[in-house]
Amino acid sequence: EKYQDIIKLSNFSEVDLNHLNGHKKNFVRTILPIIINENQKILTLRKELLYLKEKLKENKTLNSFEIKNLKKISKNFNINFDNMHKSEILDSLLVHIDVIPNSIVLAQAAIESGWGSSRFAKEYNALFGQYTYDNNEGVVPLKRDNGEKHLIKSFTSYNSSVQSYFRNINTHYAYKDFRNIRNIMRARNNFSDIDLLVEKLNTYAEDKNYIETIRAVINKNKFNKLDFKKISY
């Protein structure tokens, strides 16, 4: 179903956290502004892409600077633009470059970092338990099984960890279905049922109950109330 003006943003404030206890409140107070900021950057980039799409539709072409910038963004999002028309590149980018609901990001950060209490979160700013195989950017998990070679990706700040998470969801082939569902929601201007997106995160962890855990964290902590928050500068 298509909705009109379903997305109405309001400013994030301390009052929005009154339903949380002390530890959870501190965690959300720290992480949510970073998530909101990342989503706002994405919306700004989408606006630029939509402008280019409209210009291409009207003029049938883009200038050399715009084409160069388009290819640069494509590389950043792992999109192979060879043999693709400019309109196809833009359509592909708009599928990859879109918001991830605050509630989902918060829930995964809480689950993967133990609400910021895990060793990886405290010592390495790793909020999402992302894997890497690069010894220069990862830490060996204490409970890694024999024969396994994965590391947990470390970061210089929480900001970098959140940015990496967004890039992972918006580029990795494992989350293609997530992006496709989100694209349908965007076309219908209807992000009211984020459970449709949560269902497509089953590959994020090996835990067969992972989806139910995300749902439980979102519902118990009323994270859905935080989905349409913005920050004014």
Provide structural commentary.
This protein has helices at 22-59, 64-76, 86-96, 102-113, 119-124, 158-171, 176-187, 195-198, 210-220, and strands at residues 10-11, 131-132, 138-139, 151-153, 229-230. The model has no long low-confidence stretch (mean pLDDT 91). The chain has 233 residues and is mostly helical. It has a three-stranded antiparallel beta sheet with strand order 2-4-3, with no helix packed on it. Strands 1-5 form a two-stranded parallel sheet.
Which features characterize this protein?
5 strands, 9 helices, mainly alpha, two-stranded parallel sheet, three-stranded antiparallel β-sheet, 233 residues, 52% helix, globular
Radius of gyration: 19 Å
The average pLDDT score comes to 91
The amount of helix comes to 40-55%
Spatial sequence of strands, sheet with the most strands: 2-4-3
The structure class reads: mainly alpha
**Helical region count?**
9
Characterize the largest beta sheet: strand count, sense, and whether it forms a barrel.
3 strands, antiparallel
List the SSEs and their pairings.
Elements: E1 10-11, H1 22-59, H2 64-76, H3 86-96, H4 102-113, H5 119-124, E2 131-132, E3 138-139, E4 151-153, H6 158-171, H7 176-187, H8 195-198, H9 210-220, E5 229-230
Parallel strand pairs: 1-5
Antiparallel strand pairs: 2-4, 3-4
Brief summary:
By secondary structure, the protein is mainly alpha-helical. It has helices at residues 22-59, 64-76, 86-96, 102-113, 119-124, 158-171, 176-187, 195-198, 210-220, and strands spanning 10-11, 131-132, 138-139, 151-153, 229-230. The strands form two sheets. A three-stranded antiparallel sheet has the order 2-4-3, with no helix packed on it. Strands 1-5 form a two-stranded parallel sheet.
